Amino acid sequence: MLFDTYNARRKHWRVHREHKETFDCKEKTCSKLQFKSKYSLDTHILACHTEPPKRDSLSCQYEGCVLEFRTNAELKDHQVKYHGRKITIKKLYTPILCEIDGCKKVFKYYKSYQKHVDGHCQKLTTTSA
Predict the structure, then answer these.
(1) Which residues form the C2H2-type domain (predicted)?
(2) In Å, how far are 42, 69, 78, 103 from 66, measured between CA atoms?
């Protein structure tokens, strides 16, 4: 008999060992199933008799809505589509406005603003001289 992998051959070989011990499933719903290895029994128990862990779900908080979602993104999409929820974009910065000589340029970063102001100062010193 040929095997694709070394592990497949080892698994097959273990089945034919002289090892007579069997591992029984103790669950009432299994009509006395027997396994030749503890690993096989454990795999069976996990697959057949263990409930998967429940993930926390996110419930829609709108009145009368009972839907639940796996991710925050799915919940928000639902609320926008079916409940008319408005998405507000938060500004993460306070804009910095240059008011030198009526410039009115807006900057996101103080360093950029400072560099810009320095440019104004250089223009003033070169034009005054």
Answers:
(1) 60-83, 98-120
(2) 37, 10, 12, 54
